[in-house]
Design a protein that fits this description.
This protein has 11 helices and 9 strands. By secondary structure, the chain is α/β, with parallel strands linked by helices. α1 runs parallel beside α3, α5 packs across α6 and α5 crosses α10. The termini are far apart. The strands form 2 sheets. A 6-stranded mixed sheet has the order 1-2-3-4-6-9, with helices on both faces. It has a 3-stranded mixed sheet with strand order 5-7-8.
């Protein structure tokens, strides 16, 4: 399994473990992540969930070959189960990010309570370049967090940004040296897990008070995402990616 799940008392640690593929996420990995978050939500003994990547990388985003083979065209698909589970998770969720945070590697952070990042981390949202649209309600949450024009810069131009920029945006809580990231991640998780559990639960509940806009935006994005995956533009974008050439969208009409 390419997702390592470790439970140490009140802390569930999730690790993307596919370093040879830059921790690119497959359908099976999404299913495992969804299972883990659903398990954490239902287990009163688990108070904190951490998520990180193996091999000095967070994730290069979706495994495109796997994604094309198992197109997410329904709400019960593992990727949408995972997104709903992390967005609705009643436990504190802390991410430790380094190396690459591509696509969903960045958008999932919008649903984390704390995000620690190593100095050399690169964040990017290349959806439009792949003839797709944003997901994880990022088209709603990112403009709320950083402003519409900045969000447009990263969602339309797909300009990557570094950890310092992410910190200034409020997407990242703090920057931690790479060699201290794991220790800091688990140290903070242990601190929160040691606090009064009901007070922590209620505080997170208040911080993430229900917002129908998020669920509605996720559903709208998901429907459009499925349509875009089946489009001629997406076929050309993916073919160009695998063939390592510049896409030609004049023939994708």
């Amino acid at each position: 399994m390419d997702i390592i799940v470790t439970v140490d008392g009140p802390v569930m640690a999730l690790r993307l473990d596919r370093p040879d593929k830059k921790n690119a996420i497959t359908v099976a990995m999404y299913a495992a992540l969804a299972d883990a978050f659903e398990r954490a939500a239902a287990d009163e003994d688990i108070r904190v969930v951490t998520i990180a990547g193996q091999g000095g990388l967070f994730t290069a985003g979706n495994d495109l070959a796997d994604f094309i083979a198992a197109r997410p065209d329904g709400e019960d698909m593992p990727v949408f189960r995972f997104l709903r589970a992390i967005a609705a998770c009643p436990k504190v969720v802390i991410a430790g990010v380094e190396g690459l945070a591509v696509g969903i590697g960045t958008t999932m952070l919008l649903h984390c309570d704390l995000v620690l990042a190593a100095p050399g981390t690169t964040f990017s949202l290349p959806f439009v370049d792949l003839a797709l649209v944003p997901e994880a309600a990022s088209s709603l949450l990112l403009p709320r967090l950083i402003g519409r024009q900045r969000a447009a810069k990263h969602l339309l131009l797909a300009d990557p940004f570094d950890a310092e920029t992410a910190l200034s945006y409020g997407l990242v809580t703090e920057i931690v040296p790479a060699d201290a990231l794991e220790g800091r991640l688990h140290g903070i998780a242990a601190r929160i897990a040691a606090k009064p559990p009901e007070a922590v639960r209620l505080t997170k509940q208040l911080l993430t008070a229900p917002d129908d806009g998020v669920a509605e935006r996720m559903a709208a994005e998901g429907a459009l995402f499925g349509e875009r995956l089946a489009s001629a533009e997406a076929a050309e974008a993916f073919a160009a990616f695998f063939e390592k050439r510049k896409p030609d969208f004049t023939r994708a009409r």
